[in-house]
Design goal:
This protein is an all-alpha fold. Helix content is about 65%, strand content about 0%. The chain is built from 10 helices and no strands. The longest helix is centred in the last third of the chain and has 24 residues, at about 155-180. It is globular and about 50 Å long. The relative contact order is 0.14. The mean pLDDT is about 95.
Length: about 190
């Protein structure tokens, strides 16, 4: 869990010193390291402020880790497509890595990253990603016709809300990661 001095996390001149964080954050990071084998750099950078750390993790865990309405793989597909549309280096690398693990297919994960339309996905998943794409690139044009397309694919109102939440969350985190020039963990590259 050490933050190596030579490890570049981002381009901001705000020091990240994990050793100086409080006990609760250190314990959380240890759990991450045990479960994932790494501590994602986005978590490391959030250790600069306990409120920031807690707020990010509460929302992320509720959306992406808790069992909700969408399957985890569907949520990661949204994360990958939104990140690809936003050209967010950190999130493209980290979430295509996670998607590859969930699918047990890194090739399919990369196809979804580059062009989900040519990845051979189910009609239902493609419509979900079409909605996420429209919400990302032209949110003001989303209307009832778009939500009806999801309903036609058997997405409930709760599914639709979760699609919107996941898409919105990754539009926000993509901007944080890109704006700070956050660097993906090297492990994401080495283990694919």
């Amino acid at each position: 869990m050490q933050n190596k001095k030579s490890e570049k996390l981002w381009s901001l001149k705000i020091p990240v010193n994990i050793r100086k964080t409080n006990k609760e954050i250190k314990e959380y990071l240890l759990v991450c390291e045990e479960k994932l084998g790494i501590v994602p750099n986005i978590l490391k950078t959030n250790t600069i402020d306990k409120k920031k750390f807690d707020a990010f993790n509460i929302f992320y865990n509720r959306l992406m880790q808790d069992e909700n309405f969408l399957k985890k793989v569907e949520k990661e597909m949204i994360a990958v497509v939104v990140s690809s549309l936003n050209r967010c280096l950190y999130c493209c690398i980290s979430h295509s890595y996670t998607l590859g693990k969930l699918l047990n297919d890194t090739v399919l994960a990369k196809k979804i990253l580059i062009n989900y339309k040519s990845a051979g996905l189910s009609r239902k998943n493609e419509k979900m990603l079409d909605f996420a794409k429209k919400l990302t690139v032209s949110s003001s044009t989303v209307d009832e016709t778009d939500r009806n397309k999801l309903r036609k694919e058997s997405f409930t109102e709760h599914h639709i809300l979760e699609i919107i939440e996941v898409c919105s969350f990754f539009n926000m985190t993509n901007r944080l990661a890109s704006g700070t020039n956050m660097q993906p963990n090297k492990e994401y590259y080495l283990t694919q």
